[in-house]
Write a structure and sequence with these properties.
Length: about 350
């Protein structure tokens, strides 16, 4: 009964809970792992920094980068293609495109082998990137994601992509800290960028540069420490982690797989929904305990009374009529108490 009312209450607040077990587990959660891109940030990044690193001019560099990124569904790819278009550059046609999940993309444009991706991805492909750290530092400190562009094995450009932090993220995290949750920011992005975002949201624990499979490992590690872990993500690269967590929380508006692998879905991708879900689950747990107490009290008092314990002393006993009325009354109080959940403030 309580669960049914709570599910309805949650739905009205934009919190969709899959089943009773999820609501129950959520009440026991003490650790929240949050994804950065698309969960704390808008997930609609835009290209704000363009630096040249070689002798290729800006238009050509953007033409090569946008050319390979056109094949990728990653939000960063859209930012690069749109950013090139805003600067009047058409993407070049790409051949033999490959996407390396959570790292970058590769392909051939204008006869040149082009790589666009993280520093570590380019390093693995033998591109000398060690000298570029200094150039990437300033945009990263502002929270931008830095993506490098290489052609024919040499770095030619650095792209800084900014993704605004969601307006409600600060409030949401403050409320979660107030509920005594341990909060861990997990991201595939660089340490500096992750730290810049974490600082703005007062998150002290950051796990940067996590490969796509790594988020699941992080969750398992926390669970091994005895933590009950919720994971909030948008499903881009983190669907397995959402499924692995004790409670997966999918940001609506993200990838559809997120909703499939998560026990809780937040409509509109509002991070304050995480707080609402938590309050809903704790409120429901309290309500269920009260109901058990009601039912127990009625039985403890009613059963001996009906059996006639007071009859010898006081001549009082419960006739079958009264006893059955008391039985229904117990159900009525349970229902009335459960219905109070409709007014639970979230
Ligand atoms: P997050 O965990 O923050 O959602 P991802 O795991 O999706 O981030 O990506 C991690 C990193 O991999 C990015 O910061 C970027 O450097 C690189 N990357 C991933 N996809 C692309 C792409 N299509 N183009 C360029 N770089 C990419
Ligand atoms: Mg993501």
């Amino acid at each position: 009964m309580s669960i049914m009312v709570a599910t309805g209450r949650g739905a009205r607040a934009g919190v969709l809970v899959r089943d009773a077990a999820a609501l129950e587990r959520l009440a026991r959660v003490d650790t929240l792992v949050v994804d950065k891109t698309g969960t704390l940030t808008e997930g609609r990044p835009s290209l704000v920094t363009v630096r040249l690193l070689g002798d290729v001019d800006e238009r050509h560099m953007l033409r090569l980068a946008a050319g390979v990124e056109r094949g990728s569904a990653h939000p960063l790819a859209a930012a690069i293609v749109d950013g090139a278009a805003e600067r009047g550059v058409e993407p070049g046609p790409v051949l033999s495109f490959v996407s390396l999940a959570g790292r970058g993309v590769a392909g051939t444009v204008d006869g040149l082998p082009v790589l666009v991706g993280s520093e570590s991805m380019l390093r693995e492909h033998g591109v000398p990137v060690d000298a570029l750290g200094a150039q990437a530092e300033a945009p990263r400190r502002e929270g931008q994601t830095v993506v490098l562009v290489a052609a024919a094995g040499r770095p030619i450009g650095l792209l800084g992509i900014a993704d605004r932090i969601k307006a409600q993220a600060g409030d949401a995290l403050a409320a979660l800290r107030h509920e005594r949750l341990r909060i861990v920011l997990a991201t595939g992005d660089s340490r500096l960028t992750a730290a810049a975002v974490a600082r703005r949201l007062c998150i002290s624990e950051v796990e940067p540069e996590i490969p796509p499979e790594g988020k699941g490992d992080l969750i398992r590690r926390l669970q091994d420490q005895g933590r009950v872990v919720a994971m909030a993500g948008d499903g881009i690269n983190d669907a397995p982690a959402l499924a692995l967590a004790d409670v997966g929380i999918a940001m609506g508006g993200g990838a559809d797989v997120a909703v499939e692998s998560a026990a809780v879905t937040l409509l509109h991708g509002d991070p304050r929904g995480i707080v609402r879900a938590l309050r809903l689950s704790r409120g429901t747990r309290r309500n269920i305990r009260q109901n058990l107490l009601f039912a127990f009290a009625y039985n403890v008092l009613g059963v001996p009374l009906a059996a006639g314990v007071l009859y010898p002393a006081l001549g009082v006993s419960l006739g079958p009529m009264i006893a059955s009325a008391a039985m229904s009354l117990s159900s009525v109080s349970v229902i009335a108490n459960a219905l109070r959940l409709r007014r639970l403030s979230l």
